[in-house]
Amino acid sequence: MRKFACIIIALLLTACSKEVAKSNYTDVIPRNATELLMIDLNALISKAGLQSAEREMAKGQLWEMLLKNGNPTLNRKINEILEHPEQSGIDQAAPIYLFEAPTLHTIALAIKVNDYLKLHEFIQLLSNEGHCSAPTESENHRRATFKGVGLELAYNDGTLLMVYHANRNELQKLSPAINQLMKQTNENSIVHTEHYQQAAQIKGDINLLITPDSMPIEMRGLFSLPQGTQLVGGVKFDNGKLVAILKRADFNGEVYINATPFRPKSNAQLQSALSAMMRGKPFHIELTPEELLTVSNLRVLMEYSPNDPGTRQLYELIQKIDLLTLQGDNKLSVFSLDLANKQENSLKQLINYAQTLVGR
């Protein structure tokens, strides 16, 4: 299982034969996709500190596990990709799109291919080692299956489509839908929708376009959003600060926000303020670490069970926060998290904290 996970990480992070069609990788994302994430992988890798010497050492250990007892040809190829990531055939500068389409009922990734032959060579080597099925030819692409992780790959000169389903039998049933997405024309892609353009313009490391119709009905009811509403947003990781924005795609106005923030003194006051926000009342809430301890009832929990792991971990996390801010209404909301450490990127700080939890 670890080997399969490493292979997928290789395709994403390091991110002869019949002629195949040239394609635009965003063409596979249909206009009616219910969820779409645009991921700037290069920015996330840099901000997470994954280019540092320490991370390179950890990556080397990961690959050593994959390469152990492997075929020398595959070993050389993987080492080549580690040294020169462009040898994977994947365009690492292009955004990665994670989406869910009605015809798939599961998540998929659309990744830009800038060298089809290099990608095909790598997948063939993986097939020779039994990591995936032998690539088969379809109308305008090739297919390979990683049965161990429920992952189907469809690729051509321009596009790598990765479709995941935990149930292998269900994954096989998705084959016709995958074929249709690979044949989809640019005119039927989501990039030609107005709301996609709005989402793409948000300055985030991760941008999103979703429809509440894909949310549980209980959550849709909380936000009182009419059927068919589109939401756009983004998450940005800066030094010492994380900012997230979510707004209705059809809203282009401004939200009146009280300059004086409301500072809840209890969990009941916080819940009341959030409930009013979901009904459309403008809000501006600020909480310091000490106030967070109070409204989360964590101060009381620390007195009665200070050694409980979950309580202790949440307490430590709150201590890393300088200020939590919520502003907006049900048309436009902004969440910001100011961290005590202003020098280091917020994503790297969160990952470092998560690593300490794993190491316990």
Uncertain parts:
13-20
Structural class, please? alpha+beta
Mean pLDDT: 81
What is the share of helical residues? 25-40%
* Strand element count: 13
Instruction: Trace the largest sheet across and list its strands.
Output: 4-5-6-7-3-2-1-8-9-10-13-12-11
Main beta sheet strand tally, sense and closure? 13 strands, antiparallel
Alpha carbon gyration radius = 23 Å
Report how far the terminal alpha carbons are from each other.
Answer: 23 Å
Oligomeric state as shown: single chain
Shape call? globular
Number of helices: 14
What share of residues are in beta strands?
15-25%
H/E element order: HEHHHEEHEEEEHHHEHEEHEHHHEEH
In short:
With 360 residues, the chain is an alpha+beta fold. Helices cover 39% and strands 21% of the residues. It has helices at 2-13, 41-47, 53-67, 72-83, 116-128, 168-173, 175-183, 194-201, 217-223, 267-278, 289-295, 298-304, 309-319, 346-358; strands at 35-39, 96-100, 107-112, 136-137, 142-146, 151-155, 159-164, 206-210, 231-238, 241-248, 283-287, 321-328, 332-339.
